[in-house]
User: Fold this.
Amino acid sequence: MKRGFVSFVGAGPGDPELITVKGLRRLREAEVVLHDRLIPRELLDEVAPGATIVDVGKAPGRVCVGQGQINWLLVDWARRSVRVVRLKGGDPAVFGRLGEEIEAVRAAGIAFEVIPGVTAATAAAARLGISLTERGSSSMIVFVTGTDHTGHHPATLDWDALARAEGTLVFYMPVGALEAITASLTSLGRDPREPAIVIERAGVDGERVIAGRLGRIAEEARAAAVASPAVLLTGPTVASASVPSSVRHVLAGMGS
Ligand SMILES: C[S@@+](CC[C@H](N)C(=O)[O-])C[C@H]1O[C@@H](n2cnc3c(N)ncnc32)[C@H](O)[C@@H]1O
Assistant:
């Protein structure tokens, strides 16, 4: 019986050149690739002819392959193949349900590795020339989910601590909860004048940036009909953002 091996590979945030050399090598060697919806499609051209490609992509609000079924497919393919790549958007370990997939593979006695990827927060910061940390003004970065497992604003987060955090906050999946997120932060004392940015489709065709202040950014993003995938960044270092000239939309300027 063949012994399968699963490589969880970070595909990066959308730019196909942002996968690691190691991740790309695993993709080229794979017999089976199970991939998310939010992966650069160009990467699938790297898969060897004859290999099997399985789209297990999940779209927000649409009926799709459930997590349990993804876990089952992963184990099933790993039992029948030697080299399986589970290609996940961004970094597999950041809001990617990696733990559940590792648990399934481990329980089936299948060996695995995790190859990290560029996560949306760092990709967005890089696009805007922002340093997420800065000596003296930003000594921490917090990656926060803007949507809980039920699809709503995560009320159970420690909003008080987030409001007081002296650093950069990056909200993933914030689109449906921008008003609730910004209101939670400012009502607990975070400065509504703090620079904030929403970046939609960072590094991908159709990229847009909405730059403004924390107290107004939700309204501005809503007026621009910002859609997923997008991240919200807020913190002192966001003030140094420079928006690439190729980007389609910039509403309120940072100086306003
Ligand atoms: C389920 S999470 C997966 C995150 C991924 N594992 C990562 O490390 O970036 C999906 C969220 O990541 C963010 N995201 C992913 N790609 C993005 C991109 N190109 N631009 C902006 N946000 C992105 C969005 O907040 C999106 O809703």
Summary: Helices lie at 21-29, 67-80, 98-107, 120-127, 159-164, 178-187, 217-223. The longest strand covers residues 5-10.
